[in-house]
Amino acid sequence: MTPTWLQSQTTVFLVTLAGLVALLLLIIWWRERSRRWGYGLALALALAGLFTWSAGQLFEVPDYLAGCPELCAGWRGYPVPTALSTMHGTWTVSPIGLGINFLFHGLLLLLVAALWSAAERNWRLPPAYAWRKVLLITAVVVGLWSLIPRYAAPPEPAVRGDAQRLGINAKRLAARALGGLDWRIQRLALEDVRRLPQRLQPDAPGLPPPTGPEWRVCLRSYTFFYVPWRRVYIDLDATGALTIGGGVLPLDQECWSAPFPESPYPFAVGQPVP
């Protein structure tokens, strides 16, 4: 599903215009700052193209049912979709999304380079120690980049109501359901929410049967540098407030086909949960 703001031509025009104005101002700043600004601009635009392509490969929201009366189309790209799912295993490129993403990454790279240049010029050290300054600035930039999942929200379906509540609870209860989160998991993003098959028997003798359908929440985990790492599924009780299990799967395996041997739910590999 295309984000709402991208469906408005006026909003897209204003965002693009503001980005172009900011890009022009940064180019003027670099032109006054350095004689080799042209080489720097060419390098930044080349890297912006590479980052735009990489974001389309790393960030994917599969087709989902959460908050939709029927299957909704997923997308690829970040921070805006660059390709939209046809729901038949193929993708349609979004020229508007490609242009906005390219502009965003170009602005980000030029801004980071400007901050780097200002820090390097204002932090004066003897020539013998110049390499230490470069090394420290590099370590800070790479460190902040590696931890970007901690402070930048990932792409995920814009759900509301019960689906949003279940997604939030699943992220909050993930560590308990899995017996602790792996240190490589730096961020969890919602992929989908679906009902589990209805149980007719209680979990243990003496306990009443469930009063309603339980839920499975599928999450995509990201590691350092926002690299996709694993899928995480969390099973919640009928209230959606308590976890009754969970697991970690490779990215090429769907949450809905995951067996759960310690649970009474009759999962069959390859069969989606209705």
The tally of domains stands at 2
Overall geometric form: globular
Quick one: biggest sheet?
A: 4 strands, antiparallel
Distance between the termini: 21 Å
The fraction of residues in strands falls at 15-25%
Key attributes of the depicted protein:
disordered C terminus; alpha+beta; 6 helices; four-stranded antiparallel sheet; 2 domains; 274 residues; globular
Structure description:
Residues 260-274 have low confidence and may be disordered. The protein has 274 residues and is an alpha+beta fold. The longest helix is centred in the middle third of the chain and has 28 residues, at 95-122. Helices cover 42% and strands 16% of the residues. The chain has two domains: 4-127, no CATH class; 161-257.
Q: TL;DR of this structure?
A:
This protein has about 270 residues and is α+β, with helices and mostly antiparallel strands. The protein has six helices and eight strands.
SSE layout and pairing:
Elements: H1 9-33, H2 37-58, E1 60-61, E2 75-76, E3 83-85, E4 91-93, H3 95-122, H4 130-146, H5 148-151, H6 161-178, E5 187-195, E6 215-222, E7 228-236, E8 243-249
Antiparallel strand pairs: 1-2, 2-3, 3-4, 5-6, 6-7, 7-8
